[in-house]
Design a protein that fits this description.
alpha/beta, 12 strands
């Protein structure tokens, strides 16, 4: 299983049978095997998680076997023309091509989170499923958010996940790690790639410094060391 970070919450996972592309937003993709099938997942309609231009990009790259797996909240007007597409909603199971089984969780924002089982392992992409606590929100709102998030993550408690993609958002300030910490404590996960950090990869280094017990689990998507000013 080869994993390539693209940008923001977008990752490309390559297995022996196919590619999985999650939540494409922008930036170039690496060179791909045009004969290998690719499943394009979009967890919800937010433009930083679904850019329908990805299908045109893949066509220009000469990809011969492309299919979409799109959350139900995405408008059918934004579906690709001439591309086989599966519409998914939360708390459901789907048999997808290329020996791929999909289960979905309910996001605490919009759409779904993806749990994929394939011959090479189990992959989790959170989309916007996170404990979105915000200082400007009421205490009641944040308590409800935490409860909703934990309910969904508890559904994964008996699952072993080989690789996970989970938000680590610096905009949450003091609560930036709240969701990821609960996920790490409740789920048997081998490797986690933080995402959704809005161009501030140093938040990954901050997390590892503050929670060194997870140093061997958290993998950097890009250089997170602070840069010296010139």
């Amino acid at each position: 299983m080869k994993i390539t970070y693209i940008f923001h919450s977008c990752f490309l996972v390559e297995t022996a049978q196919c590619y999985y592309l999650f939540d494409y937003y922008m930036k170039d993709l690496p060179k791909l095997d045009r004969e290998k099938p690719i499943l394009v997942f979009a967890s919800h309609t937010h433009p930083d998680h679904y850019n329908p231009a990805i299908f045109e990009k893949l066509e220009k790259m000469g990809m011969k076997h492309v299919a979409g797996v799109l959350a139900k909240d995405i408008s059918k007007k934004k579906y690709p023309v001439g591309v086989e597409t599966v519409t998914v909603t939360f708390h459901q199971k789907y048999d997808l091509p290329y020996n791929t089984q999909l289960e979905t969780l309910q996001s605490t924002d919009q759409g779904v989170a993806f749990l994929i089982t394939c011959p090479e392992g189990t992959i989790y992409h959170a989309g916007d499923l996170n404990d979105w606590n915000w200082a400007e929100e009421s205490e009641q709102y944040n308590r409800q958010m935490t409860g909703n998030y934990r309910h969904e993550i508890n559904l994964l408690a008996q699952t072993t996940i080989d690789v996970a993609f989970h938000p680590l958002d610096p905009r949450q300030e003091g609560d930036y790690a709240k969701g990821l910490l609960y996920f790490l404590k409740k789920v048997n996960v081998k490797k986690v790639f933080p995402m959704h950090y809005w161009g501030k990869p140093e938040i990954i280094g901050q997390f590892i410094k503050e929670h060194s017990e997870y140093r061997d689990i958290i993998l950097p998507t890009e250089d997170y060391l602070p840069r010296e000013s010139s």
